[in-house]
Amino acid sequence: MSHIVLFGTRFCPFCVAARRLLSAKGIDYQDIALDEDAELKIRVMAKSGRNTVPQIWFGTDHVGGFNELRDLERLGNLESAVQASLELGETVSI
């Protein structure tokens, strides 16, 4: 199981962009669909404090959404953030 988790919906353009970015960087991640699971969506949004998708976690650290993920990549910090989450070996629990 990957320590990188993306909670999103199937057709959200930001979710699609986040998936593309992670895949383009060769980052293994778990993609959890919220489209048909209203209770899970409520729990994810309560844990993150946000009501938008995608919601991305590196281990137990909430990265944010696509904009924050893209900012990590633009600043050259994406790979080190991924590596840090792998070293900790923890996965978000929702």
Set out the fold topology.
Layout: E1 4-8, H1 13-24, E2 30-33, H2 38-48, E3 55-58, E4 61-64, H3 66-74, H4 78-88
Parallel strand pairs: 1-2
Antiparallel strand pairs: 1-3, 3-4
Helix pairs in contact: 1-3
Please characterize this protein's 3D structure.
This protein is an alpha+beta fold and 94 residues long. The protein has one domain: Glutaredoxin (3-Layer(aba) Sandwich), CATH 3.40.30.10. It has a 4-stranded mixed beta sheet with strand order 2-1-3-4, with helices on both faces. The longest helix has 12 residues.
Keywords:
94 residues; alpha+beta; Glutaredoxin; 4 helices; globular
Shape: globular
| CATH homologous superfamily descriptor | Glutaredoxin
- Uncertain segments are none
Which strand-content bin applies to the residues?
Answer: 15-25%
Question: Which class in CATH terms?
Answer: Alpha Beta
